[in-house]
Amino acid sequence: xxxxxxxxxxxxxxxxxxxxxxxxxxxxxxxxxxxxxxxxxxxxxxxxxxxxxxxxxxxxxxxxxxxxxxxxxxxxxxxxxxxxxxxxxxxxxxxxxxxxxxxxxxxxxxxxxxxxxxxxxxxxxxxxxxxxxxxxxxxxxxxxxxxxxxxxxxxxxxxxxxxxxxxxxxxxxxxxxxxxxxxxxxxxxxxxxxxxxxxxxxxxxxxxxxxxxxxxxxxxxxxxxxxxxxxxxxxxxxxxxxxxxxxxxxxxxxxxxxxxxxxxxxxxxxxx
Length: 272
Known about the structure:
- This protein is α+β, with helices and mostly antiparallel strands.
- 66% of the residues lie in helices and 10% in strands.
- The chain contains 6 helices and 4 strands.
- A 4-stranded antiparallel sheet has the order 2-1-4-3, with helices on both faces.
- Helix 1 packs antiparallel against helix 4 (145-195) and helix 4 (145-195) runs parallel beside helix 5 (210-257).
């Protein structure tokens, strides 16, 4: 019974832990992904605005590449490259398509959720407008490695806290199960002792849940009744044995005293 209780409680705890930790872990990934997208969009907008106003953005692009180690490319409204750092090349189909889509004003697709094992490097772009028309475009190959590391760290904390809570809950469940079934073990021991002719080990301590405490009280009353009955039987047998022993002893003494007064013909009967 105790093992079954622990098993059921353990399964429920694991289910509850998964139900809480999985959404939390995914929320951490979404939050870090959104923060990465906002930060890169802000920086891309700054580069695009700088290119639209001044045209010379090479120094800013080189500085960005040096700090973040990400490939970046800036073009004007016609797609002509103004500055670049890294391996982005408009000759590549993926890069050319991203430039074309960005210059026509289509929004950049949302970043996919960053997970600990994410190693993708998606393209992201931002444009600057002048008199309502696209004036410049900044294109970036986003490195998700650092964000994936942050998500992995967050997941590690979630796992650590979850395991700690699970162990604490299992320890509490073990204590509760032992507290609940302790009267059952006491009843079993007392019943075994009573069946072997003992006195039932004395009164069983009434502890545990209220339902079991009531059962223990009834068992103790039953033991008292059985013990009183056994004691009455023992006294009856002792009294009867005493009453039987005294007359028989007197008869034997009288029979022994007749030995000196018997006729020879009765000696055999007397000896018997």
